[in-house]
Amino acid sequence: MSRAWLSTALVSLACLTGFAAEASSRRVVAPVDRAEERIIPMYGDLPGCADPAVLGSLSSSFNAREATFWGPLETLSYDRIGQLGYRPWGDDTIPRRFCTARVLLNNGLFHRVDYSVRENLGLFARGWNVNWCVSGLDRERSYAPDCQMARP
């Protein structure tokens, strides 16, 4: 046996021993079945579609985007508010409430708005936030065609 082969064998044995010790010290974690059991718990306690906080968040976000990028449009009021679905993909996904409404803009026109209230997707994964799309005003085609991708 040569010295080089012996050195290589000893280094390999040391590496294998280290890997085995590391693997045995790891904790086995079972897969998580429900959203409520994750590191950041999700309980599905979301405000309703017509909640003033939800509509206020939608309005402020829309108004800010329009003022910054596109023009003078602003929301005035909402009607025909309805829920499209709540957790449509099951309990093991991020809780979402899908809604639709009709929004009156300051140009006098009504548009359909599809929005979802989503849990733990706000700032620093706390609270809830609103994701929305106004039909006819999805200029980047983010939710094309005609805001259908903002629906369940």
Would you give an account of this structure?
The protein is 28% helix and 26% strand. It has a 4-stranded antiparallel sheet, with helices on one face. It has helices at residues 3-25, 52-70, and strands at residues 75-86, 96-105, 110-119, 128-134. 18% of the residues are buried. The longest helix is centred in the first third of the chain and has 23 residues, at 3-25. The protein starts with a helix and ends in an 18-residue tail after the last strand. It is α+β, with helices and mostly antiparallel strands. It has 2 helices and 4 strands, in the order H-H-E-E-E-E. The chain folds into 2 domains: 3-37, no CATH class; 52-150.
Question: Could you tell me the radius of gyration in angstroms?
Answer: 26 Å
Low-confidence stretches: 19-25
Largest sheet: 4 strands, antiparallel
Q: What is the β-strand count?
A: 4
For the biggest β-sheet, the strand order reads 1-2-3-4
Helix fraction bin: 25-40%
Run of helices and strands: HHEEEE
Structural class estimated from helices and strands = alpha+beta
Tell the overall outline: globular
Strand percent estimate: 25-35%
Mean pLDDT: 82
Q: Cα distance, first to last residue?
A: 69 Å
* Total separate domains: 2
Oligomer: single chain
Helical run tally: 2
What is this structure's SSE topology?
Layout: H1 3-25, H2 52-70, E1 75-86, E2 96-105, E3 110-119, E4 128-134
Antiparallel strand pairs: 1-2, 2-3, 3-4
Key structural traits:
about 150 residues, alpha+beta, 2 domains, 4-stranded antiparallel β-sheet, 4 strands, globular
